[in-house]
Amino acid sequence: MTAPLVDIRAVSHRFGQLAVLKNVSLRIESGSYTILLGPSGSGKTTLLSILGGFVMPSEGKVFIRGEDCTAVPPARRPTTTVFQDYALFPHMSVGGNVGFGLRMQGVDGATRAAKAREALALVGLASAFDKKPHQLSGGQRQRVALARALVIEPAVLLLDEPLGALDLKLRRQMQDELKAIQKRVGTAFIHVTHDQEEAMALADHCVVMNDGRIEDEGPPERVYARPATRFSATFMGESTILSGKVTERGDRTSTVSTPAGPVLVRSALLVGSAVALAIRPEHLVLDGAAGTASLGMAKVGDVVFQGSFKRVLAASVEDPSLQFIAKLPATATVQSGDTVAVSCDTDQIIVLTD
């Protein structure tokens, strides 16, 4: 089996008595776009800092291209980091900023300038070579930081919430550009974010972190459609969660008793075991449909128009503490105060046993 580009082995880290990473192991392949996704305090930024050499792990090893880089300083690693605040030198031209890493490597001025121009052309800023950073927009400065990181041709590019300071429209534009650039250069990108939509837009390898551990990892389509844990199901997109107990088991199905009534699921589960059923908003149906399983009646609370769809919150009539989250077409006529039948396609129910 081919060795991974990055191999993180049983890494733990503590700040004083606070454990921020707990026995994390992760393999990252060449040419991949990996997203480290999680809430504040999950350990994702600390893990990125360990990969970049800015933090030495309390325990464990980090291998890059088969070499033990655990104690190697940042300047000697085959990695470069793009920070959220860009960290550009205000007194230098854009070209000088982009070529700075090459200058530190002893590359001559003519070669530096040529490579800096190539890198700026790659990020769509060929005409900005002689400008100063303050003359550029936030999105343009982010591209300069990206060009500066790519010009030294790292094996791994580390991105620490690089789009966090941008407005929504620009953030989405930069997502498209980041993915396109990554495909063109072929460098492995490892990108930290707490934004689930950003993760799904960019990643081909999504790593969900919580409380210093990896909860789930894999292609974003799998992590979203079939999350491994309850936390992953609720953090990687929204879900309605039905807690229940298995009451009957067939060859390939089981019946689960829930606050919304008995639900048939496409899994053979142990009778008496406690499970949670997760249902994505797009799989909930209001006011019934042929071939769907009933989840009882619910009273509609909030209806929020979000452009291409309406996000609907509705409380179960049988158990008002149970909140359904549905995503309906923008043309749906449902209104706050309506009482509606709730159902779903049983094939789309996610069974969580953690």
From TrEMBL:
<keyword id="KW-0813">Transport</keyword>
<dbReference type="GO" id="GO:0015697">
    <property type="term" value="P:quaternary ammonium group transport"/>
</dbReference>
<keyword id="KW-0547">Nucleotide-binding</keyword>
<dbReference type="GO" id="GO:0016887">
    <property type="term" value="F:ATP hydrolysis activity"/>
</dbReference>
<dbReference type="GO" id="GO:0022857">
    <property type="term" value="F:transmembrane transporter activity"/>
</dbReference>
<dbReference type="InterPro" id="IPR027417">
    <property type="entry name" value="P-loop_NTPase"/>
</dbReference>
<dbReference type="InterPro" id="IPR003439">
    <property type="entry name" value="ABC_transporter-like_ATP-bd"/>
</dbReference>
<dbReference type="Pfam" id="PF08402">
    <property type="entry name" value="TOBE_2"/>
</dbReference>
<dbReference type="InterPro" id="IPR017871">
    <property type="entry name" value="ABC_transporter-like_CS"/>
</dbReference>
<feature type="domain" description="ABC transporter">
    <location>
        <begin position="6"/>
        <end position="236"/>
    </location>
</feature>
<keyword id="KW-0067">ATP-binding</keyword>
<dbReference type="InterPro" id="IPR050093">
    <property type="entry name" value="ABC_SmlMolc_Importer"/>
</dbReference>
<protein>
    <submittedName>
        <fullName>ABC transporter ATP-binding protein</fullName>
    </submittedName>
</protein>
<comment type="similarity">
    <text>Belongs to the ABC transporter superfamily.</text>
</comment>
<dbReference type="InterPro" id="IPR013611">
    <property type="entry name" value="Transp-assoc_OB_typ2"/>
</dbReference>
<dbReference type="GO" id="GO:0005524">
    <property type="term" value="F:ATP binding"/>
</dbReference>
<dbReference type="Pfam" id="PF00005">
    <property type="entry name" value="ABC_tran"/>
</dbReference>
<dbReference type="InterPro" id="IPR008995">
    <property type="entry name" value="Mo/tungstate-bd_C_term_dom"/>
</dbReference>
<dbReference type="GO" id="GO:0043190">
    <property type="term" value="C:ATP-binding cassette (ABC) transporter complex"/>
</dbReference>
<dbReference type="InterPro" id="IPR003593">
    <property type="entry name" value="AAA+_ATPase"/>
</dbReference>
